[in-house]
Amino acid sequence: MPETLKLAIVTDIHHGPDKLTKVGSAALPGLREFKAFTESYQPHFIAELGDRISDIDADTDAAALADIAGHFDNLPAPHRHLMGNHDQIYLSIADNARLLGQDMGHHSVDVAGRHLVFWQMDCEIHRPQGFVPRQGDMDWLRGDLAATNLPSIIFTHVPLDGGSLQGNYYFDNNQRFGGLPHQREIQALIRDAGNVILCVAGHVHWNDVNLIDGIPHITVQSLSESFTTEGAASGAWASIEVDDEIRWRTHGRDPISLAVPVRSLNAHWRAPLPPFEELLRQSQIPAGLDNIKGLILDMDGVLYRGDDPIDGVAAAMAALQSSGIELVALTNNARSSAMEYSAKLAGLGMDLPADRIITAAEATARYLSDQDAAATVFIAGSEVLAREIRAVGAVESQNPAFVVAGFDMDMKLSTLSQAVAHLHNGAHLIATNPDPMLPVGTGVEAEAGAVIAFLEAASGQTAYVVGKPNKIIFQQALASLSCGAEAVAVVGDTAATDIAGATASGLRSIQVASGNPGTPGEPHQPTAHMASLVEIAEHLGN
Q1: Continuous segment of H or E residues that includes residue 238
Q2: What is the location of CATH 3.40.50.1000 in the chain?
Q3: What gap in Å lies between CA 353 and CA 205, rounded to an integer?
Q4: Class for the domain spanning 5-261
């Protein structure tokens, strides 16, 4: 069995006049009794956890603190003081250090095979918010715990557990002054350290214990408090013994005792469940769609049909964005620029900037630039496609290395004839997208796939098509998202382009019924089917 560590603790002495339920006149007599106890108990270490005085004014408080300091002379064991909130209303931290003869900063010491940590976090109450976290305090505690392998005990003035204050005379109706706003961050730090076995505090003027992750968080009753003891000062101080178990006893008129096993180092409880509302939401997410942080959206058939928005999609996009899910749009249409598409969406009540929209024209230009930073090209497509290609440094030529094919409603047969000639002279055929037709209103229009078929038939070449389902365009979309591919899903209405491209890119996919009707026996199957982006937002949005 390890050596038994013996500790003596006193807190919230509140020497001064009687004030509310603090019997300040009983503080010094109680402190004399505590000192006599330590002489008989012979602890290894003595801790005083702050709020030594009841603040009156600077001169009165300084005299009161000098009285307190005298009672800590000639103790039978080393001792350490912490600052409390009352100790620094009229006196500075430097005043406390001078009168107590002790530095009042963070401190740690190894005693009887345990690491004692006196964490001097900021205990000044900043009204009206209460205690204010300091990053430097957190950094010190993290570093101190990381530097030792010994079982560690943390002493603070304010409790770290965030326990209930219901019924507490001072704090039931003033909760923000009774606990720390960053208590969960502190508890996570302690959990991660793995070597803390006990936390001891005062401040809240009652005895309390709360086990968190197997670690007892003990608060010790105030020496001069009376609201729990029918008007008489409690005369409370505590003894704690630690070996294979922790034995806590508060002495005086408000006694309590507890014995619990010492938690093994790096032994943890299961992490708490998320909120039940979140569990319910997760249970409603279709299989395979957990942990989605980003969506790649097809546009026509997902966000709108032709010039008309799909019902509810604008609100669905806003809900997804507000829940933290990143959105990027991806279209095989190369007839309009990203700026034009962004303006179109804005007119439909949807907010998506141009840098979050990738068109087949832009993707083709990027691909061409990757092949040759100053490629020579012949363009059989729209002016938008030509602008995108020129923007990446390509040069139009009558002796091109590449023929780039898209679709233009005003394309002439002579343009196609020149393209065929260049292909027979050795140019390579690159195309924006494979779609043979584009649904418009109640009918259809020809698309780039028809141009590709003409050029392939006339040249004998097979086009390299950059748009969906080629995974290159999906990789470009992924590059604009901050989350990894494992947290991204593709939303589309067309299996042969959207779903097939997602599968080829190793991405999950959702096929919506708001655009193209599905084809029976379609070989490209999505991760999930949903009615529209509205249903997706209901499942994935918070």
Answers
A1: strand 237-242
A2: 279-332+470-540, 364-465
A3: 56
A4: alpha beta
Residue 127's SS3 state is coil
pLDDT tens by residue, 456-477: 999 999 999 999 999 999 999 9
Is 2's pLDDT higher than 70?
yes
Q: Which residues pair with 443 in a beta bridge?
A: 440
Query: What's the pTM?
Result: 0.60
Q: In whole angstroms, give the CA distance from residue 193 to residue 149.
A: 10
Model confidence over 22-43: pLDDT tens digits? Answer: 999 999 999 999 999 999 999 9
- Report the top-level CATH class of 279-332+470-540: alpha beta
What's the CA angle centered on 181, arms 179 and 185, to 5 degrees? 110
The label of the residue with tokens 């900063």 reads 105
Could you give the C-alpha distances from 91 to 53, 124, 128, 355, in angstroms and in order? 10, 11, 21, 57
Kindly tell me the burial class for residue 310, based on how many C-beta atoms sit within 10 Å of its own C-beta (0-12, 13-18, 19 or more): buried
At the top level of CATH, the class of 364-465 is alpha beta
Instruction: Tokens for 120, please give them.
Output: 């001097």
Answer whether the bond into residue 128 is a cis peptide, omega within 30°: yes
Question: Reduced to 3 DSSP states, what percent helix, strand and coil does the chain have, rounded to the nearest 5?
Answer: 30, 25, 45
Peptide bond into 309 cis (omega under 30): no
